[in-house]
Amino acid sequence: MQKGKIGVSSDNLFPIIKKFLYSDHDIFLREIVSNAVDATQKLKTLAARGETSVSVENAAVRISLDEDKKTITVSDNGIGMTAEEVEKYINQIAFSGANEFLDKYKNDANAIIGHFGLGFYSSFMVSHKVEIISKSYKEGAQAIRWECDGSPEYILEDADRTEVGTDIIMYINEESEEFVNKARVSEILNKYCKFLPVPVVFGKKTTWKDGKEVDTEEDNQINDIAPAWTKKPVDLKDEDYASFYQQLYPYSEEPLFNIHLNVDYPFNLTGILYFPKLKNTIEVQKNKIQLYSNQVFVTDSVEGIVPEFLTLLHGVIDSPDIPLNVSRSYLQSDSNVKKISTHITKKVADRLSQLFKDNREEFEKKWDDLKIFIEYGMLTDEKFAEKAMSFFLFKNTDGKYFTFEEYEKLIKDSQTDKDNNLIYLYTSHLEDQYSFIQDAKNKGYDVLVMDDVLSTHLINQFEQKHTDKRFVRIDSDVVDHLIRKEDPADHLSFEERQELSPVFQSVCPETNGVNYVIDFKNMGEQAQPMVITRNEFMRRMKDMSKLQGNGGMNFYGDLPESLNLVVNTDHPLVKKVLAEKDEVLSADLTQLNDQLAALKGEQEGLEKAKEGKKDEEVPQADKEKLEDVRTKISGLEDEKRDKLKAFGKDNKLAKQLVDLALLANGLLKGEDLDKFVRRSVELIK
Predict the structure, then answer these.
(1) Do 186 and 79 share a structural domain?
(2) Residue 328 pLDDT > 50, yes or no?
(3) Residue 328 is labelled as binding a ligand
(4) What is the extent of the structural domain holding 413?
């Protein structure tokens, strides 16, 4: 029996390797099984070259669990190790046998995963003792047994083993007893090992008998050694891709379509990416693409290898050329990663472009499910955005689809404003903005549907790239002012506006954190008496702040909602309110206006007397007189405003007109709605 010390530079290195080498402790099983697969693949390579007569016909990796002894054993009938190889590859940490083997057999070796020689030591993250029992394929080789308790000391001695291969026996420590459980081991194997290229067997298949689950004689192979992405696209049918998707994501809704990646230059990359149905929202969970290296699961956090927007896809990417750090759990950034990322983006864009060209009708049917993905790509990847302009589709309220170029031709004549800007009208909600849409269509305008969470961001991007094009939401102004062909005439004097504004302001709701700004526009006698619109800029900022959460736009999200109550000065009912105001308040307003006129004349004279003088040159009496005049003006204006508000609150017609506008926008609810109904009945009588 031989005793010795493992070749590490410091006794302190071993516990660091045991505890911190891997981010997830369950990865130990992946590493040990992967090593067993490597050993099997090596023996297959030698057999194929005629360098060994050892049979590889029933090659497999077997995992066994002993819950009483608290052990997990991983067994293979692969290449095995001699005592000298154990010394070299186990006792000298980080001297990788895979690297040396690849150098020697680089033209024949296939799917050798190990690169760092550290994977074996992951077993010590969960074990208080590890044994290796191994017999090399070499003629006359002596079987050996190696044992280590997690300290630098080890035991290496001869063993009795007749079959070529290796057993790794892990004695699970108290802190890791969760892994001494059949269901837990199954879960880990299914996560990390379900597509390894060598059969991986864990126990026997089960069946129900006499009301309980019992083992059968058939091995329970947990992996598919030839998954769809390892095959050539020409050998696969649509049902094969659909079946593989269900294998990856059981019980999931059928995807829209897929892209089969198969690249061998300038890097090796295979995989299948699926387009899921995203509908109108971005999925929060983006870890749906699984990254493999030679069929060994690496990670499902692929932000480092694929562009941000492609993380919305599902599927598998497999590449031995993606550089991994020592634990294989995180991607390292280098030129290969950037090349692969760029290539995948190009393949996705080309595939979408081809689908559009080959069968536009089918593409349009899938557009509502695809558009979030494409919009996300256009917002986050400039190169994808350039390619996507050829297949991005606008959808209008009639359900028709147009490319950017097609839509520009459609609306150019009717929707170009007086400043030669092309105006794209859009709705974010077909039902809520129905009346606005109808008004626009009656005027001969076309209206787009842009109702998903990314629309506001996409609109901003379009406008930045095309400065002569503007997107205007259908409810941001009255229809005559959405596309300004000429500057509108004003039918009300400034004084009339000043007197009407408090009347309608007084009957606007005072709750729900909404500010109402009164505006006056001449919209014609046939238009609605009042319309509620939303300021385009503020609404966009608030929409963007919602999507960005606590980002820089959050300031806008905290601002109260601001709505414009646009009063149609041409409407007979509005003129009636104006006439009733004059009738009821004529005497009071005339008196107040005369007093205000006199005071404002006096104010003007006092301020003119100050012109050209320094503050200390103005007599104190004049300063006090001016301040007194200003105070009186402010008091009279408040008195005038109070009288107008009091009139408005008592005027049922004014309140009814405001409530009608609120009702049309779904803003009249609860007690206010009940009062509106009762008032309507009274007015009808």
Answers:
(1) yes
(2) no
(3) yes
(4) 392-482
